[in-house]
Amino acid sequence: MRYNSHNTIKPSIPNGYEIAREPRMQVKKIENSDIIKSSAEISAVGANKFEKGFSKHNLDEHWGGAHDHSSEYPGYTKEQYAERALELVQSAADGKNILGYKNSCGQVVRYDINKNDFVIGRPSEGIATMFKPKRKRKYFDDLMEAENEKT
């Protein structure tokens, strides 16, 4: 199958999927079929609507599991932790209290300066993690700087 190099999507592949050729593109199901296609770009600093928050497995891992962050959120329930993560990751980065960017993996990254909450996720896949970095804003700044060096 041939396609022009300026196209961002391969028009067709035998297995019924279209492949996004640019990292800013998401994959999405085409109406009334099992075919997926690219959808809108993830906003680096604007609000993003997530289809879901933590998966059950991932939430269990981050609240009482192998990557436990529950001690960083005293007084929170597991559900409140999940709600806070979703609220933050969907927030627009205002550059004052909420900082943010999109990393090279196409994930939304947000950091709340006042609450020292750091979250990463993808709108189509959910939240990867949320925690309170020990180095606070320096942790966020160092990650963002490393991402800038990649591009």
Describe the model.
By secondary structure, this protein is of the alpha+beta class. Helix content is 23%, strand content 20%. It has a four-stranded antiparallel sheet, sandwiched between helices. A hairpin with a 4-residue loop joins strand 4 and strand 5.
Question: Which structural class should the secondary elements be placed in?
Answer: alpha+beta
The helix fraction, in percent, is 10-25%
- Strand percentage, roughly? 15-25%
| Measured distance between first and last alpha carbons | 31 Å
Largest sheet: 4 strands, antiparallel
Rounded mean pLDDT is 80
Q: Count up the helices.
A: 3
Shape descriptor reads globular
What is the CA-based Rg, rounded? 17 Å
**SSE pattern, N- to C-terminal:** EEHHEEEEH
